[in-house]
Design a protein that fits this description.
- By secondary structure, the protein is α/β, with parallel strands linked by helices.
- It has 11 helices and 5 strands; from the N terminus they run H-H-H-H-E-H-H-E-H-H-E-H-E-H-E-H.
- It has a 5-stranded parallel sheet.
- Helix 9 links the parallel strand 3 and strand 4.
- Helix 6 crosses helix 8 and helix 8 runs parallel beside helix 9.
- The longest helix has 17 residues.
- The chain is globular, with a radius of gyration of 17 Å.
């Protein structure tokens, strides 16, 4: 199925027509009155209300989404530990996120891979204010990526990423598992670097593009969870880098 995403992306590039992905899963759930203010955020519904997740995915598909994103952004070892969920059960829930999305309708499934900072619960995905070794990043992300791949995700949504070292590890894991991915980052939001061309950890987007240029599996790049006024400058900065479709 991963080739399906690559072919779909290539066709969009040739035609100039965009691919349409889904909207914010958490926002859609909160609009239904669901409280997400706990360690697992939307991932809690994988256990507690999978039918609700399926309904949201289906709504996005009916609205025209060609790709839907799994509820695995916050499905992390730290989150499961805080929710007293054993690691084995956590991996089963990650696999279930793919099954629910795939069963919602005719769309490709992007397995959501959020950053380590999201698991901290302190907004670090918007600042990049954390530091792990490459080995620690890999140990954190590998189980989720492996579970998503084994469950049949068509691609990875490596999203809301603020940290260049973490992104480098994630790109390597996507290559290792042979699954295509899009990469979207958060941006510096204050001070003299809040110009749409720097990541949250102050890395210029041009440097980031160079760092992932050798990845076989990073197939699109862009931004998410940033101020709307920063989107156009960021995409312009990405467009000056080695050519990849923009998200």
């Amino acid at each position: 199925m991963s080739q399906t995403f690559i072919h779909l992306l290539q066709a969009a590039v040739r035609s100039g027509d965009p691919l349409v992905i889904d909207g914010g899963l958490g926002t859609a759930l909160e609009s239904r009155g669901i409280d997400l203010s706990h360690e697992l955020w939307s991932a809690a519904l994988l256990r507690d209300s999978p039918d609700t997740l399926a309904e949201v995915h289906a709504d996005f598909i009916r609205a025209g989404a060609q790709i839907v994103t799994t509820a695995s952004y916050q499905a992390t070892p730290l989150g499961f530990e805080r929710a007293s969920i054993p690691a084995e059960e956590g991996l089963r829930l990650i696999a279930r996120s793919v099954e629910i999305a795939a069963g919602a309708g005719d769309a490709l499934v992007a397995g959501s891979v959020g950053p380590y900072g999201a698991a901290l619960g302190n907004g670090a995905e918007y600042t990049g204010d954390y530091h792990l070794s490459d080995e620690e990043f890999a140990a954190f992300h590998r189980p989720r990526i492996e579970a998503l791949v084994n469950a049949g995700a068509d691609l990875l949504a490596i999203e809301t990423q603020p940290s260049l070292p973490e992104i480098t590890v994630l790109a390597g894991l996507a290559d290792e598992y042979g699954i295509p991915a899009w990469l979207s980052v958060t941006l510096a939001d204050q001070g003299d670097l809040a110009d749409g061309s720097h990541m949250a950890d102050r890395t210029p987007l041009s440097d980031l593009a160079e760092a992932v240029a050798d990845s076989r599996m990073i197939r699109a790049v862009g931004v998410n969870c940033v101020r709307p006024s920063l989107v156009a400058p960021a995409l312009a900065a990405w467009a000056r880098a080695p050519a990849l479709p923009l998200i």
